[in-house]
Amino acid sequence: MAAAATAGSSPGSGPGDSPEGPEAEAPERRRKAHGMLKLYYGLSEGEAAGRPAGPDPLDPTDLNGAHFDPEVYLDKLRRECPLAQLMDSETDMVRQIRALDSDMQTLVYENYNKFISATDTIRKMKNDFRKMEDEMDRLATNMAVITDFSARISATLQDRHERITKLAGVHALLRKLQFLFELPSRLTKCVELGAYGQAVRYQGRAQAVLQQYQHLPSFRAIQDDCQVITARLAQQLRQRFREGGSGAPEQAECVELLLALGEPAEELCEEFLAHARGRLEEELRSLEAELGPSPPAPDVLEFTDHGGSGFVGGLCQVAAAYQELFAAQGPAGAEKLAAFTRELGSRYFALVERRLAQEQGGGDNSLLVRALDRFHRRLRAPGALLAAAGLTDAATEIVERVARERLGHHLQGLRAAFLGCLTDVRQALAAPRVAGKEGPGLAELLANVASSILSHIKASLAAVHLFTAKEVSFSNKPYFRMGLEHLEPQQRVINSPTWKRGPAWIWAPSPCRDQSPVTPVSTLCAEARETARRLLTHYVKVQGLVISQMLRKSVETRDWLSTLEPRNVRAVMKRVVEDTTAIDVQVGLLYEEGVRKAQSSDSSKRTFSVYSSSRQQGRYAPSYTPSAPMDTNLLSNIQKLFSERIDVFSPVEFNKVSVLTGIIKISLKTLLECVRLRTFGRFGLQQVQVDCHFLQLYLWRFVADEELVHLLLDEVVASAALRCPDPVPMEPSVVEVICERG
Amino acid sequence: MGSCLCPLRACWLEEGNLEEMHAARSGVSLESCALCLHKNENCLMGRKIHIIDFDDENNMINKKVLLHQAGEIWHISASPADRGVLATCYNRTSDSKVLTCAAVWRMPKELESGSHESPDDSSSTAQTLELLCHLDNTAHGNMACVVWEPMGDGKRIISLADNHILLWDLQESSSQAVLASSASLEGKGQLRFTSGRWSPHHNCTQVATASDTTLRGWDTRSMSQIYCIENAHGQLVRDLDFNPNKQYYLASCGDDCKVKFWDTRNVTEPVKTLEEHSHWVWNVRYNHSHDQLVLTGSSDSRVMLSNMVSISSEPFGHLVDDDDISDQEDHRSEEKSKEPLQDNVIATYEEHEDSVYAVDWSSADPWLFASLSYDGRLVINRVPRALKYHILL
Q1: Residue A584 — pLDDT band, cuts 50, 70, 90?
Q2: Do A649 and B279 count as a contact with CB atoms less than 8 A apart?
Q3: Which of A402, A418, A719, B41 is exposed most, by the fewest CB atoms within 10 A?
């Protein structure tokens, strides 16, 4: 064996393969030798093509190629090469042939031993195989003998086996029969012991067999016996079921057994529901009794607790048992249950509502909320069980309704409180007015009103707040509107025109600042602010109208053509100033000063002189330089061009200055329009001049931008001058004197 | 002119002349409209009427001046029948008393024809009105306004004097005014009419007047009150106007900055209220042909053009001329896609620097209107093009 191995490996790594060549040449030469061997043995050209690119193998002039044709090669050499090269190639070729010869010899010598040992190995193998064959033959004969024996044994045992099987069958049958014969007595015993479940199980097991063999008299007897007992059993079960004293689970058990006994499900179902109804009605009655005509003794929480544990719990059990027992009934059964639940549920809800209605009168919110919460939570179980009955929806509705009513109640209370406050303050205001002296400070009144309203709102908010507490299960549902509803009382103020009189009714939106958890505070504030602004604007309008009415009448009723030279400021102007001052005081009690334009912080003297001088230049140019009437026109137009347009009825800010500016604007604009509709005599004009100067003297301090007053009064005087056929204005100094005297 | 203008009243002269109407429509010459404005020369007792011709083609304004020597004019109205005739209320000052009288005047012939030679220096060629007749009011007090019967032959005039309403018949080619009938308002306090309009409906038998905060309707045949809207406005009612296309509807405006629209069959509630102005509204005028367009002028120096679609006689902005029925089908389909317009203010004109006392529509071109303010500025505007097409198409 070892010799064979060496012989196999020798061609690749033989020591004498290429002893003289350098290391790098070895693989190259080996491959070449391989290639040639392959060629020799006719191996495919494809395999040979794996060689590195060499000369074309089909080239007949390739000495090493398979298709070498000496004639062609010679011919080619002779044709192509000069003599010297021919000689060279000849010597070269001779040298190569010699080298090849010697190579061949060495190879044969080197491998001779290996060939010998390979032949030996093959011969030895031949011997071994022959021995093995003999042993295999022996094994085969032995196996055949074993098979034969085995077959014989089986044949012998066959008969016995069959008999044993038959005996086992008979044994089982006998046991069954025994059970059957014993059945009546067992059943009786079971019934006596009250183990109804066991009895029903036995009965169930035996039923089919008895049914099958009832034509045999003995079985018949057993069956009859059984039937009698079963009937008794069923009767007893029914009895127990009807008695109803036991709880729902036992009843359910009874029903289950009865069903197993093959009683008609329809009827059982009806009966079951009827029983459940009886029980639940009992609960309801007890609840109703609690509700009673007498003043409700237990508080609402207790009531809902009772209701929850008694009725709702019972309902839950019934529903669960029913669904379990009568699942086979399909949609009709479910429908029946749903109807049942609906009916009882609605009665329950009616009761709960009655109870809750009793709670409406006031009292503690937290209790109510907890009760509602519990109620709602309790109902979630049957709600999940019976989606069709819509219990949850109804419950949510009730909760919502109650909450809403509660809110309404609070709102009502708030309104009443608010109106009460207003009435109080009105009386407080009216009383001193009659007496003709200053009443209690408006600010004080306002503070009172605001604080009382604030406290009211806070209280109700706190009460209502409970509804939205986090842990209350229904908190996220219906309460978004609450905040807005709270604002309503304020809105209503606007609608009641009685409040024109009192600026006290405008309060800043502070009362609403305490947050409602649901409505964003900013909305509330904005709404309150808007309300207050509208109220204030209305106030400004009304006050402005009062003054303008006065001014209008005074201008319209006077005969301006035939007045005398002015000696005094007209009384109506004094009245205007007085009223304005009164309003100023009134408003000052409630609002801060507000912003004025910077220039007005000086004394009235200075402003006055500026005013009068500007008037002299601008307005009365015609009287001094009558030749240039165009200039006045131009001047006034240019002035108008640069002065801003005055928005007369513009919205006001929450400060005194703004309010008064609004009022004065309205009044002066009225004066202007009225003056334009009249014709003035010389003294009429002068009177207007005096009046305007007087107003100028006193009104500037009230407004945000005294330029405004200048502008309007200038406009009045200018208009009067235009409406005068004989415009001779009074000397400013005289005007001043008159005004100061007045 | 070198003088202060104090125009208080203006009116469009009626375009009675058929030939001219035709010309205007075919675009040959002009949208000739004459506007009378009254001018008060400071200190002088000479008063003027300006007749303004607005040439729509060339966007040119021509002005002619008529002297009105009797006194300063407070109210002016043109005869519907005769372009050359107009009535004025004016102040007469005598013995340091001011009395407002009324008279009917005729313009000089060459003005009446509406010729368009370039005006010379108007002050030099100022012509004088020819007095036709006085409306004698010595017994009744100050005249507040004069209104012509809108559809008639220019023979009947209503004038309002203090608390009297007087119906005059003009006889002998307007040279004589005979008081036909009168009625007066009785009540507490000083009742005075401020304004009045003659309804174009019901065969011109109704007149509406404003006094203080109350609107009243009168039957001119019996001179009795037919309806009364108490407290129509919170304050003085300044002006009113009848819807020219829809019976019973009238608009009023007043010192409470509101414009209200009334159905005279139900006087308890206004049909609609506009509250856009920020001061007294002095004037309200319905467009003569498209009555959803309402013009208001106010002493907040603004003029507003409102589109009151919901209460107009053509609620969906729809007008079909008889002669383009063929086009009608095309328009129909478009209209369906269009949203009906909402009632809204279409435009606010703020060209005036001072209170606007008069606004009126052109009687020739329904898309043209003028407004007049205290500082003497007259502004002529057009209805926005988009709206015009919306209404027409």
Answers
A1: confident
A2: yes
A3: B41
Residue indicated by tokens 């011109």: B204
Complex-level ipTM beyond the 0.85 threshold? no
Q: Which domains does chain B have, with CATH numbers?
A: 1-186 (no CATH), 194-393 (2.130.10.10)
Partner-chain contact B4 A632, CB within 8 Å: yes
Amino acid at A683: F
Contacts of B3 in chain A (CB under 8 A): 629, 633
CA-nearest residue to B278 within chain A is: A649
Report yes or no: B136 at the A interface, CB cutoff 8 Å: no
What angle (nearest 5°) sits at the alpha carbon of residue B253, between those of residues B251 and B254? Answer: 160
Q: Give yes or no for residue A173 having a pLDDT over 50.
A: yes
pLDDT, tens digit, for every residue of A256-305? 777 766 666 677 777 777 777 777 777 777 777 766 655 555 666 777 77
Q: State yes or no: pLDDT of A311 exceeds 80.
A: no
- Using a CB–CB cut-off of 8 Å, the residues of A that contact B are 545, 557, 559, 561-562, 622, 629-630, 632-633, 637, 640-641, 645, 647-650, 669, 673, 676, 679, 681, 722-723, 725-727
CA distances (Å), origin A685, targets A617, A666, A729, B72: 18, 22, 7, 18
- Report d(CA A88, CA A348) in Å as an integer: 130
Please check whether residue B377 touches A, CB under 8 A: no
> Based on C-alpha coordinates, what's the Rg of chain B?
21
Nearest-by-CA chain A residue for B190: A557
The secondary structure of chain A in percent helix, strand, coil, rounded to multiples of 5, reads 80, 0, 20
Q: How far apart are CA A612 and CA A220, in angstroms?
A: 137
| Type of residue numbered B234 | G
Residue A64 is which amino acid? N
Comparing C-alpha atoms, which of B319, B374, B218, B302 is closest to residue A633? B374
Interface test with B, best of A548, A560, A679 (most B CBs within 10 A): A679
Q: CA-CA distance, A667 to A543, in Å (whole number)?
A: 9
Closest alpha carbon to B308 in B264, B341, B268: B341
Tokens standing for B92? 């007469």
- DSSP secondary structure of A421-475: HHHHHHHHHHHHHHHTS--S-HHHHHHHHHHHHHHHHHHHHHHHHGGG-TTSTTT
List all residues of chain B from 292 to 331 with a beta carbon under 8 Å from chain A.
299-301
Q: Do B91 and A649 touch (CB under 8 A)?
A: no
Q: Nearest Cβ partner of A561 from B3, B97, B354?
A: B97
Residue type, B156: R
**Whole-number Å distance between alpha carbons of B143 and B179:** 14
Residue A601 exposure: Cα atoms within 13 Å on the Cβ side: 5
User: Inter-chain contact A629–B91, Cβ cutoff 8 Å?
Assistant: no
Token representation of residue B378: 């007259």
Residues of B in Cβ contact (< 8 Å) with A723: 6
C-alpha distance from A431 to closest chain B C-alpha (Å): 29
DSSP SS3 for B287: coil
pLDDT of residue B13: 42
| CA dihedral of A164, A167, A168, A171, whole degrees rounded to 10 | -160
Mean pLDDT (whole number) for B357-383 = 82
What DSSP line would sit under A296-365, residue for residue?
A: --S-HHHHHHHIIIIIIHHHHHHHHHHHHHTGGGTHHHHHHHHHHHHHHHHHHHHHHHHHHHHHTTS--H
Q: What is the 3-state secondary structure (H, E, C) of A47-99?
A: HHCCCCCCCCCCCCCCCCCCCCCHHHHHHHHHHHCCHHHHHHHHHHHHHHHHH
Q: A59: Cβ–Cβ under 8 A, 6 or more apart, which residues?
A: A65, A67
